[in-house]
Write a structure and sequence with these properties.
The complex is a heterotrimer of chains A (162), B (303) and C (358). Chain A is mostly helical and 162 residues long. Chain A contains five helices and two strands, in the order H-H-H-E-E-H-H. Chain A folds into two domains: 74 residues, Winged helix-like DNA-binding domain superfamily/Winged helix DNA-binding domain (Arc Repressor Mutant, subunit A, Orthogonal Bundle), CATH 1.10.10.10; 41 residues, no CATH class. A two-stranded antiparallel sheet of chain A has the order 1-2. The longest helix of chain A has 22 residues. The relative contact order of chain A is 0.15. Chain C is mainly alpha-helical and 358 residues long. In chain C, strands 1-4-3-2 form a four-stranded antiparallel sheet. Classes of the chains: A mainly alpha (162), B alpha/beta (303), C mainly alpha (358).
């Protein structure tokens, strides 16, 4: 199986995005990559038609398992953010769904005037507030006892981008 | 196809058993980390896989049904031994020539290109290269053989952080380009996740834990809650490790089904390092996954 | 499930031909300095022999020109030393040098061959390459064996050639233990044995210096034993017996040249001598010495009296055991075959050790 079919006869172009890893963050490596692409999209560093770095290049620069990069790219593709073009690579298709500015403002207002106010009234300081919020968020995001079956499928290499 | 498959593999050196009743199967296309404390039998297992050791009991095959050490297997399995034994008195160029002549399949142009990229001077004596460069040279020679399985014994043990990064980058890039399987041993547990997607934990010559790293992580959780309820919760799960404070307890458990936690208990993800250390700390824990049965192995292979 | 694709560049080889050329290149790369050193020694010996032979040939020519035939106190030519004093030292030096050759090759080529790999751990590299450990070891050994065999065969024949004038005049013989082991096929056989023993000990001991020391001790010891004892024992095997009129002491190791008064064919090699007394009983060496003493006492001062007559009067017969010249090559072949067989067994044992080393 050959992931990057391109022959290495040309200099790698300046990458559209430079990934970095925080090994101690506890976030799975592939998710770190996904988040960084999403973040770059939100900030406009990546736009439609940009090519993501080739798996080989990401792997060589970060010294990580190619399967991890493949998994991240597959995840992005499943989210509809990217599309793989056989023999060429992975390209940005769309931006992540951004929430409208109006809706954002409303949500923020409800948070400030509602929960945050209650927390302050209950005597929580800033750190306590953050800790509680993060714990609740984690609970909300992944009910822990439902094992992360998402990780089971599609992990095998060979179901490559091409 | 399994790149390495053993059943009841045992190896005795004089009076000590380096491996005992070791049964495992490593599917193809993986980067496998073989971890365990010093003396766990990692090197012996790898040597058995590359044909440097003959089993006292049991069987081992590589790349499907090949006998390790047979010409067919040697042609497709490349090995970088611990401490990177090379002919130190030869020049890099001569070392490449030796490797080329010892293999019927050897891409000399690729090896030379890679050495140029690594800025390893061809006229320098191998013994005069830095430890990192020697490791890179050994790896380059192995990669030029276009192996289907690359076996690395403690490749990172003697390298500084930068050399480690460069070495593994070379491995990972080659895997990305050619898609061969890798098995590497390490007694360092941190950073494994970065390189490996499959884990084998050896302790005292036996397999303690084995599987896809995502599955292993998903199958374990760190529960924390009031210490007085810890025994009760412990009965609900297969507990790998229990740590108790005055009012608070932490249980590392295997999560098999959807068990509801009692209120007041929190569940958190386990890092790979925590998980491996917990298992290694208590090699006799009864809740070990244990050796997989052939049926389970078949299932784990299906994609 | 990933399928591992074959590389388009490097096709899989179905058959595994023995990689002679490739292993020759590996051997050359790995052992260049040793091989060059050996080659220098071999060429040095060859040059010395050629130079020495040329000098000897000149001496022999003037020896013959003066009407001399062979070394004899009874000819006007006198002792050979008058004629060949310049040549014998170099000849002896070459005989010694060629005795050392099997030891040198066993110690510096055989012993390190595998022990160095085992000691430095490089066997984990070499034995996991595509060629396979048995084939790597066997081809390397065979290549080195062919190299040293060809070289030592040439040197052995050169020494034969050097010895030839000395043999004609009767001061050296290829039957002598010194020449027997260093001429013809025997030098090559000893060298092969040294190489095989060194290689075997290297793979058995796994420590270079220890393997070298043990190899030197065994090969050197056997060569010395052969020089002082073994060759005589071998050559005495199946000796023919005949009588000699004139007892020339109990010493052996003479060639039957014209005029040496013994009844065997010319060119025979005298391997033993003994007396039989009245009744045909063989005398012990003490008794024989006693008989000789009495014989000389009896003839002392009486120049005319023939000692052989005294012997026949007293019913003593002087016997010699000899090997006719035609047996020489049989003995060479037998001795060489024994050594080569031992070398082959050692090589097989080495392969077994290598194959089963784990």
């Amino acid at each position: 199986m050959v992931i990057d079919k391109e022959v290495d006869d040309h200099e790698a172009p300046v990458p559209s995005i430079v990934f970095r890893l925080e090994p101690s963050s506890g976030v799975p490596t592939y998710l770190q990559l996904v988040h960084q692409v999403e973040h770059a999209l939100r900030l406009g560093y990546l736009t439609h038609g940009d090519q993501l770095p080739r798996v080989k290049d990401v792997v060589a620069s970060l010294s990580i398992n190619p399967n991890t990069v493949l998994k991240a790219y597959r995840d992005l593709e499943q989210k509809g953010l990217t599309a793989g073009r056989p023999g060429q690579g992975t390209f940005i298709e769309a931006s992540p769904e951004t929430v409208g500015l109006e809706r954002l403002t409303a949500l923020r207002r409800s948070l400030v005037s509602g929960w945050l106010k209650d927390a302050a009234a209950a005597g929580l300081d800033e750190q306590g507030t953050v800790a509680l919020f993060m714990a609740a968020l984690r609970d909300f995001r992944d009910r822990p006892m439902q094992s992360r079956t998402a990780g089971r499928d599609g992990r095998r290499r060979g179901e490559g981008v091409a | 196809m399994n790149v390495v498959e053993t059943s009841g593999l045992a190896k005795r050196y004089r009076s000590t058993w380096a491996l005992r009743d070791c049964t495992l199967a490593v599917p193809a296309g993986r980067i496998v980390a073989l971890v365990g404390p010093n003396g766990a039998g990692k090197t012996t297992l790898l040597h058995c896989a590359v044909g440097l050791c003959t089993a006292t009991n049991g069987n081992i095959t590589v790349l499907g049904d090949l006998a390790p050490g047979s010409l067919d297997a040697l042609e497709r399995v490349a090995f970088v031994a611990q401490d990177v034994p090379l002919y130190k008195y030869l020049s890099v160029r001569s070392m490449v020539a030796v490797a080329r002549n010892l293999n019927s399949r050897f891409d000399q142009a690729q090896a030379e290109e890679r050495l140029r990229a690594l800025e390893i001077p061809p006229d320098r004596k191998v013994g005069k290269l830095s430890g990192g460069q020697q490791a890179q040279l050994a790896l380059t020679l192995s990669l030029a053989r276009d192996p289907d399985l690359l076996v690395l014994d403690e490749p990172l043990a003697r390298l500084d952080p930068l050399a480690r990064h460069d070495f593994m980058a070379l491995v990972m890039a080659a895997v990305a380009a050619s898609g061969f399987s890798v098995i590497f041993s390490s007694h360092v547990v941190s950073e494994l996740e970065r390189f490996a997607d499959y884990l084998i934990v050896l302790a005292r010559g036996r397999v303690q834990m084995l599987g896809d790293i995502d599955d292993l992580l998903a199958g374990h959780a760190m529960l924390s809650g009031p210490v007085e309820e810890s025994d009760l919760v412990g009965e609900q799960f297969a507990v790998v490790q229990t740590r108790k404070a005055a009012r608070h307890a932490e249980l590392l458990v295997r999560t098999t089904g959807n068990s509801e936690l009692p209120s007041g208990w929190e569940s958190d993800h386990v890092s790979l390092e925590e998980l491996v250390l917990a298992y290694l700390r208590d090699p006799s824990a009864s809740m070990l996954p244990g050796p997989l049965t052939p049926d389970e192995l078949e299932v784990s292979e299906v994609t | 499930m990933a399928t591992v694709a074959a590389s388009p560049v490097l096709p899989r080889r179905r058959e595994h031909p023995v990689p002679w050329k490739a292993m020759a290149r590996v051997t050359w790369l790995q052992r260049r300095s040793t091989l060059i050193g050996l080659l220098v020694l071999f060429v040095g010996c060859a040059v010395a022999i050629v130079v020495g032979q040329a000098g000897t040939h000149a001496s022999y020519a003037s020896f013959v020109a003066n009407g001399c035939v062979q070394n004899s106190f009874h000819t006007p030519c006198g002792n050979f030393e008058n004629w060949f004093s310049d040549n014998t030292d170099l000849f002896s030096a070459m005989v010694i040098a060629l005795h050392v050759a099997p030891v040198v090759i066993g110690v510096f080529v055989g012993a390190p061959l595998l022990s160095r790999e085992l000691e430095s751990g490089t066997f984990r590299f070499t034995w996991t390459q595509g060629v396979g450990r048995s084939r790597a070891v066997v081809t390397t050994f065979v290549l080195l064996a062919v190299f040293v065999t060809v070289a030592t065969c040439a040197l052995g024949l050169l020494l034969n050639w050097f010895a030839h004038p000395f043999e004609i005049i009767g001061i050296e013989s290829q039957w002598q233990s010194g020449l027997f082991d260093t001429t013809g096929p025997m030098l090559a056989a000893w060298t092969l044995f040294g190489l095989a023993l060194g290689t075997f000990l290297g793979s058995l001991i796994g420590r270079t210096v220890a393997a070298m020391a043990v190899t030197a001790a065994i090969v050197g010891g056997l060569l010395v034993a052969s020089f002082v004892w073994l060759v005589h024992q071998l050559e005495a095997f199946g000796a023919l017996a005949t009588t000699r009129r004139m007892p020339m002491g109990l010493g052996v190791g003479q060639l039957n040249l014209p005029g040496s008064q013994f009844n065997g064919p010319v060119g025979s090699w005298l391997v033993r001598a003994w007396f039989t007394g009245p009744g045909g009983k063989r005398l012990s060496s003490a008794a024989a010495n006693n008989v000789i003493g009495r014989m000389y006492d009896a003839v002392k001062g009486k120049v005319i009296v023939d000692p052989s007559r005294w012997l026949s009067v007293h019913h003593y017969i002087y016997w010699v055991g000899y090997q006719p010249a035609s047996h020489f090559w049989i003995f060479q072949v037998i001795a060489a075959a024994i050594l080569i067989l031992l070398a082959a067994l050692l090589a097989l044992a080495t392969v077994r050790l290598v194959r089963h080393r784990a």
